[in-house]
Amino acid sequence: MDRTDEELIELLVENARMPVASLAKHLNLARSTVQARLDRLEHTGVIKGYTVRLGDKMRSERLRATVLLQIDPMKLAPVLARLKALPEVRAVHTASGRFDLIATLSAQTTETLDTALDAIGTVNGVRTSESLIHLSTRIDRRAF
C-alpha cells in the first residue's frame, strides 16, 4: 500500500459513494488505474466493504455506552457468545490493562440501555464491569 492508496481510502472514508471518475479526478489518475487499485484493495482485504455513516440527527437519537469488562479468562468464549446475542452490543474489543474486553453499545431508550447493561453484568464469567455513557461526540474517525 502506498500514499496514493491511502489518499484513495481517505476519499472513500469521506464519501464511500464517490464515483470512480470523481476519485480519479481527485487523485489525478486514470479511471482504469483507480478501478484497478480499488479491485486490489478489496481483493487483499484492505477494503472490506462500503457502509453508511449516520448523520448527527440519527446518532443523537440513540444512546451509546462503552462497557469495560473484567472476565474469567477460561470463560471468554461463552461471554463473547452472550454479548453477541445482545442486539445493543455493536462491537467488542480485547484490551490490555485492568480490563479484558471493551464493549460498545447503542440503544434507543434509557430503559433498553439499562436492561442491556444489567444483562451484561449478570453474564457468567464477567467478574466486574464499568459503564461509560457517551454524552457527545467531539471527534469521529471510525474508519481508522
Structural features, described:
With 144 residues, this protein is α+β, with helices and mostly antiparallel strands. The chain has two domains: 3-43, Arc Repressor Mutant, subunit A, CATH 1.10.10.10; 56-133, Lrp/AsnC effector binding domain/regulation of amino acid metabolism (RAM) domain (Alpha-Beta Plaits), CATH 3.30.70. It has six helices and four strands; from the N terminus they run ααααβαββαβ. A hairpin with a 6-residue loop joins strand 2 (89-94) and strand 3. It is elongated. The relative contact order is 0.15.
Oligomer: single chain
Share in β-strands = 15-25%
The CATH superfamily title of the largest domain: Lrp/AsnC effector binding domain/regulation of amino acid metabolism (RAM) domain
Strand elements, count: 4
Number of domains in the coordinates? 2
Global geometry: elongated
Look at the structure and give the CATH class of the largest domain: Alpha Beta
User: Ranges with pLDDT <50 over ≥5 residues?
Assistant: none
- The strands making up the biggest β-sheet line up spatially as 2-3-1-4
How far apart are the termini? Answer: 15 Å
**Count of helical segments?**
6
The CATH topology annotation of the largest domain reads as Alpha-Beta Plaits
The SS-based structural class is alpha+beta
Compute the gyration radius: what is it?
A: 20 Å
Largest beta-sheet characterization: 4 strands, antiparallel
Overall mean pLDDT score? 90
What's the helix-strand series? HHHHEHEEHE
